């Protein structure tokens, strides 16, 4: 990965070197509070998974065998914690690069005594490539990723064909990929890209109603009151 986030297509490049990808995020950590720093220092050894180029042993990580759902970009962690509370028989791995969100997620895990959440603070593309075994996930959640609304930035959007193909390969047969956005054209892009992936099939005709397991966030509720839309796209890995 390079600093300007552009792929290396130079002639004569070493084919053995891992390809660099365009990041879908900008890492602006800002100042972290002492509490956030403490939450990470205390939480990472207990509920964190350090990035390493080797497959995660889910049973060893959670101390049991259960369906595993991966969430990419959990923000401050409130939605993840609520879903994990409502689904105690499912284990959740959340990926987030921003320190304040990671710290808050650890705080929620501790306060709510959530045994079914683990956290990885690293680039999701590399985690998928190096740590998630093919055919191992019961589901993937991608909720309200950065919309990158400017035309020149559209290539930075997370939901693109290469990533969707990678996500589809990580799902077990029958596993689901659930994306949500409050940006209509991004919702259409999600629908188009997932529809074009041969390993996936739509669970409905077009956009899906919000399922009960995805809670309505305060931000989302405010937007709906103002007449803004939210678009959910839910596809399933073909058997």
From TrEMBL:
Family annotation (SUPFAM superfamilies): S-adenosyl-L-methionine-dependent methyltransferases
One GO cellular component term noted in the UniProt record for this chain: tRNA methyltransferase complex
Alphabetized PROSITE patterns for the sequence: SAM_MT_TRMB
Binding residues for substrate: 150, 182, 217-220
Top class in the EC scheme: transferase
An MF annotation (GO) of this entry: tRNA (guanine(46)-N7)-methyltransferase activity
Gene3D superfamilies, sorted: Vaccinia Virus protein VP39
The EC number(s) this enzyme carries: 2.1.1.33
Function (record text): Catalyzes the formation of N(7)-methylguanine at position 46 (m7G46) in tRNA.
Protein name, as recorded: tRNA (guanine-N(7)-)-methyltransferase
Recorded name of the encoding gene: trmB
């Amino acid at each position: 990965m390079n600093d300007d986030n552009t792929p290396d297509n130079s002639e004569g490049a070493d084919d053995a070197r891992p390809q660099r990808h365009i990041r879908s995020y900008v890492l602006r950590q800002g100042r972290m509070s002492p509490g956030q720093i403490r939450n990470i220092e205390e939480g990472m050894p207990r509920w964190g998974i350090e990035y390493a180029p080797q497959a995660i042993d889910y049973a060893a990580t959670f101390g049991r065998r259960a369906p595993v759902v991966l969430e990419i970009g959990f923000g401050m962690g409130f939605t993840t914690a609520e879903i994990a509370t409502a689904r105690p028989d499912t284990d959740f791995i959340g990926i987030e690069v921003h320190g304040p969100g990671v710290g808050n997620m650890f705080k929620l895990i501790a306060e709510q005594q959530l045994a079914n959440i683990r956290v990885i603070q690293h680039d999701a593309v590399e985690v998928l490539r190096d740590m998630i075994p093919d055919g191992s996930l019961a589901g993937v959640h991608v909720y309200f990723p950065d919309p990158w609304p400017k035309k020149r930035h559209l290539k930075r959007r997370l939901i693109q064909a290469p990533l969707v193909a990678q996500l589809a390969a990580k799902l077990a047969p029958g596993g689901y990929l659930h994306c949500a956005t409050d940006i209509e054209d991004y919702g259409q892009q999600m629908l188009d890209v997932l529809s074009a992936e041969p390993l996936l099939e739509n669970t409905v005709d077009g956009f899906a109603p919000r399922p009960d397991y995805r809670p309505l966030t305060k931000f989302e509720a405010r937007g709906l009151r103002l007449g803004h839309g939210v678009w959910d796209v839910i596809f399933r890995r073909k058997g």
